Amino acid sequence: MKRLALYATGILMISTPVLAEDIDPEAYIKYREHLMENAKHHTQGIGDILKGKLHLPGNIIHHARALDEIAQMIPSAFPEGSDFGETSAKDNVWSDADGFAAAAKKSREATAALVKAAESGDTQQVGQAMAAVGDSCKGCHQEYRKKK
Ligand code: HEC
Fold it and tell me: Which of 92, 99, 114, 127 gets the highest tally of CB atoms within 10 A of its CB?
């Protein structure tokens, strides 16, 4: 009997890592929507400052850094198995994982360049870097996000 109990414990120990890999797709879907919405709001902040609607040039660097931080978290928000539920992500996020990773990397490079431009304090450079960031968002959405 004791032997059996030990055996059962062994099975539990073996199966625990498998259970740990079980994920809650809805939580990831919500999480990445929030990340993306945050990215949108930071780009809008920079856009409104550049347009002169807000006299807050000193905040550009903070928005730029926030965008750069978000860009680094994007890949982690799309784990395998998080494609079931109310998601606008297309299946190719997972079937073309290399392409998706490349699109995420491109976006990160654009946000890193934006931080450099913001550090220079040159608003023309910031404008150009923002256009590249915007293209990188759109580039990924065109390939990997369902149209509404
Ligand atoms: C590597 C690909 C990729 C990059 C880069 C990317 N996105 Fe997304 N984005 C997606 C996908 C995929 C979805 C759909 C997510 C879902 O519904 O599960 C999405 C969804 C969104 C949404 C809708 C969120 C919601 O509430 O449903 C917004 C807004 C958004 N992205 C903004 C941005 C902005 C702004 C950038 C650039 C700064 C950006 N994204 C960069 C892939 C990307």
Answer: 114
**Residue nearest (by alpha carbon) to ligand 1 atom 2:** 140
pTM over 0.90? The answer is no
- Ligand 1: atom nearest CA of 37 is 29
Q: If you count them, how many residues does the chain have?
A: 148
**How far is it, in rounded angstroms, from Cα 128 to Cα 133?**
9
> pLDDT digit string (tens) for 75-108?
999 999 999 999 999 999 999 999 999 999 999 9
Give residues (CB < 6 A) around ligand 1: 29, 32-33, 36-37, 39-40, 43, 67, 74, 87-89, 93, 100, 103-104, 107, 133, 136-137, 140-141, 144-145
Task: Round to whole Å and give the CA distance between 107 and 67.
Answer: 10
Q: Which residue has the higher pLDDT, 147 or 111?
A: 111
